[in-house]
Amino acid sequence: MEEPIIDLHSDHHFMGEALRQARRAYEAGEVPVGAVIVREERIVARAANQVELLKDATAHAEMLAITQAEHAAGDWRLTDCTLYVTKEPCPMCAGAIVHARLKRVVFGASDPKAGAAGSQFNLLQWPSLNHRCEITPAVREEECRQLLRSFFQQQRARES
Given this model, what pLDDT does residue 158 score? Predict the structure, then answer.
């Protein structure tokens, strides 16, 4: 039997890179969300949540990755890039994604309370905005969800 071919340019592969970033956030005591941005099948930005470290409510993984990718591109327009993120973007991040004109967003776990890519509302495809992103949900969903669940269980146990 032949070994399966590992596709280093697949959504599964790039979400694995985002999961690595999420694990880094977890180890640092941050909500475990990781993001990578891919352009022409290469990672141009990697980030993990750093809200607690930086004492900055805007230091979400997506926001930090967008800033890195803009620097790498030499432009604020990321029209040929895909964002991979372990949790569905919040409204703040979704707004930044639209403004940066990312082509596509791939996320792992949905966020039924505050998700802005279809769970609560869909800012990424809002009809009156000047840009709409393609969305691919639920990539490696269970791994992403389990990391979040584990983190919050640990947080609740500490508070008890």
Answer: 84
Query: What is the structure's pLDDT at 1?
Result: 58
Cα distances from 127 to residues 20, 120, 122, 124, in angstroms, run 34, 16, 10, 9
pTM of full prediction above 0.70: yes
Whether 62 is catalytic is yes
∠ CA 36-20-120, nearest 5°, is 60
Q: What is the mean pLDDT of the chain?
A: 95
**Catalytic entry in 62, 70, 141, 159:** 62
Strand order in the sheet with 104-109: 42-48, 34-39, 81-87, 104-109, 134-136
Return the axis-axis angle of helices 11-27 and 61-73, rounded to nearest 10°.
120
Q: Residue 5: CA atoms inside 13 Å, Cβ hemisphere, count?
A: 4
Query: What pLDDT is stored for residue 9 in this prediction?
Result: 73
